[in-house]
Amino acid sequence: MKVNHLNLTVTDVPEARKFLETYFGLTCEGSRGNGFAVMFDDDGFVLTLMKGSKVQYPKTFHIGFPQENKEQVDQINQRLKEDGFDVEPPKQLHGYTFYVEAPGGFTVEVLC
């Protein structure tokens, strides 16, 4: 069985969409104004973004974007830093990983 899609409620659909396109290569295949967007990854996974006025995910909730190697993790981390995101350097935990708060109110993990 394969997970087909995930819906995230976010406070700012256009900014969350731009973030996911810029750093993780998702593509938007459709939207309805500033309140909804349908995004796809290279494997056909569907991520929908829906506007909500209040977003409160549990503290440990996050979505993950695995990379092929540490160099790719480091590159994304550096790009995020250069673009003004508050990110710690990657650490070796359950993998080589770091977390970033994405625009719209959700957390992203980048790891290999």
TrEMBL record:
Residue ranges of the VOC domain? 2-112
Q: Which SUPFAM superfamilies match?
A: Glyoxalase/Bleomycin resistance protein/Dihydroxybiphenyl dioxygenase
What CDD domains does the database record attribute to this sequence?
Answer: VOC
Q: Which InterPro entries match?
A: Fosfomycin_Res_Enzymes, Glyas_Bleomycin-R_OHBP_Dase, Glyas_Fos-R_dOase_dom, VOC_core
Tell me one Pfam family matched here: Glyoxalase
Entries under PANTHER family matching the protein: LYASE, PUTATIVE-RELATED-RELATED (PTHR36113), SLL5075 PROTEIN (PTHR36113:SF3)
Q: What is this protein called?
A: Catechol 2,3-dioxygenase-like lactoylglutathione lyase family enzyme
What is the organism of origin for this protein? Bacillus capparidis
